[in-house]
Amino acid sequence: MNRWSSIMIYTFGEAKKSMIGRLRFPVAAMMITGYLFVAFWLSGSATSACAAEMTNIPSYGKGSWELIIFTDYFCPPCQRVEKLLEPELEKLLARGDVKITFVDYPGHGKKSALYAKFFLSAVAADKSHENAMKARRILFSLAEYKRMDQEKEIAEAMKSQNISLKTINPEPIYKAWLDMIKRYEINATPTCLLRFSSTYTKKYGDADQIRVGLIPELQRRFPGKK
After folding, report:
1. Which CATH architecture does the domain made up of 59-221 adopt?
2. 3-state SS of the chain?
3. Model confidence over 14-47: pLDDT tens digits?
C-alpha cells in the first residue's frame, strides 16, 4: 500500500466481502461497477405510465384561423351548441386549414372535472379528431340523459362505444384551460372565439349568438373542402 499505484487505486478506501475470505476490493472499483450496472440495466423513464401527463390542450387542424370552444358538459345550452357545431367542425377539419381547440369549462365543479378527465383520457389513447369528436358526443349524451357521476360507470359506457382510455394526470391541462379562461375573460358557457392570428378575435357569448352568428360566419368564410 506504500506504492503510488496502490495509493491511487485505494484512494476511496477498500471493501471486504466476508463470504470470499480475506479478499479486498477498492471502493472506487465498486463505485464504477455500480454506475455501469445502473446505466446499462436500469434504463427507462422515472415516471410511471399511470402518472403520465398531457401537456398540450386538445387542438385539431392548423392554420392562422382558430376556433376556440368553451363548453361545460352539464350546461343545457352547451349540450345544444355541441350538437349544432358538430357538422360544422367536421367540415372545418376536412379542410385542414382551421385550428379547433376545445376548452372544458368547470362550471359544475367536480362533475365537470370528472367528465373532462375522461375526454382527456380518450384523447391520450387516440389522438385523431374523429375519436375526439366521438368522445365528446358520448360524454355530452351521458351528462344530458343518464347523469352518470361514477368513474366506473362512465368508463364502462365509453368502452362499450369503442372509446379507448389511457390513464393520465389531467392537472397540467386543467391549469392550461383555466389560464385560457382567464386570458379571454370567459365567464359563461357556451362561448366561442373565432380568431385570426393575433389580429382578429370575435366572441360569441351564448347559444343564440353561436347559432345565428358564428355558424353562418363559418359557412361563409370556410365553404366546404379547401
Report:
1. 3-Layer(aba) Sandwich (3.40)
2. CCCHHHHHHCCCCEEECHHHCCCEEEHHHHHHHHHHHHHHHCCCCCCCHHHCECCCCCEECCCCEEEEEEECCCCHHHHHHHHHHHHHHHHHHHHCCEEEEEEECCCCHHHHHHHHHHHHHHHHHCCCHHHHHHHHHHHHHHHHHHCCCCHHHHHHHHHHCCCCCCCCECHHHHHHHHHHHHHCCCCCCCEEEEEECCCEEEEECCHHHHHHHHHHHHHHHCCCCC
3. 766 554 555 566 766 666 765 554 344 444 433 3
